[in-house]
Amino acid sequence: MFLTVGNALTEKQLADTRKALALINWRSGKETAGPTARAVKENDQADLNTKSGKSLRDALKKIIFLNPIVQAYARPARISAPLISRTRNGGGYGLHVDNTVMGRGAEQVRTDLSFTLFLNDPESYEGGALAIEHSGRTHRAKCKAGDMVIYPSTTLHGVEPVMSGERIVCVGWIQSAFRSADQRDILFDLENLKTELAKSYDANSPEMLTLAKTMGNLKRMWMD
């Protein structure tokens, strides 16, 4: 399953991100790819090691981590330092599976879920869809600026060639408090049910209290 999070960035956050990117240098994306992925990766990555780069990286990391839909769906325990990728001139990223672990030391995360946050409009480039292989099908995503796609890091996925214009996205990985995708899906369904029931039932009603108890006990059983 993959999920699209609409308006993960507000218009102001998106404008601030673009303004910051205008001041940042780019380098080959192969520098951060593993041995297998390096052979199929043709893109650039923003240098986020400068003062302004670190500020942008930290801001995006906080926004993504605190997004209420990310919290409900991914149940993040940790999130990687995000990367910003630019693809153009026929570049892309062939099918690959993400490394099991990303980052080092205190920044290390187990890659349960991957995310792609789109930073420019799909009309500004040709091609460049995110392609995710799942259950015998290829799912493609090419979202509007500010939208984000979350998908299992266990899947084969890639970026189709960008034939004109340029595709700019923020990517990263989430270590969930719950290893099992089935468990995360159940909790997400219950969270959505809770939101709907709250329209008709008081928070202290037997129905809402029972649901809160059930969700809490499931978390105790399943949480790492």
Search tags:
224 residues; alpha+beta; Jelly Rolls; 2 domains; nine-stranded antiparallel sheet; 15 strands
Strand proportion? 25-35%
- The outline comes out as globular
**Sequence stretches where pLDDT stays below 50 over 5 or more residues:** none
Euclidean distance between termini CA atoms: 21 Å
CATH superfamily of the largest domain: q2cbj1_9rhob like domain
Largest sheet: 9 strands, antiparallel
Structural class: alpha+beta
What fraction, in percent, of the residue positions are helical?
25-40%
Radius of gyration: 18 Å
Can you walk through the features of this model?
This protein has 224 residues and is α+β, with helices and mostly antiparallel strands. The chain folds into two domains: 174 residues, q2cbj1_9rhob like domain (Jelly Rolls, Sandwich); 42 residues. Helices cover 32% and strands 31% of the residues. The strands form three sheets. Strands 1, 2, 3, 4, 5, 9, 10, 13 and 15 form a nine-stranded antiparallel β-sheet that branches. Strands 6-14-11-12 form a four-stranded antiparallel β-sheet, with no helix packed on it. It has a two-stranded antiparallel sheet with strand order 7-8. Helix 5 packs antiparallel against helix 6. The radius of gyration is 18 Å and the shape is globular. The mean pLDDT is 94.
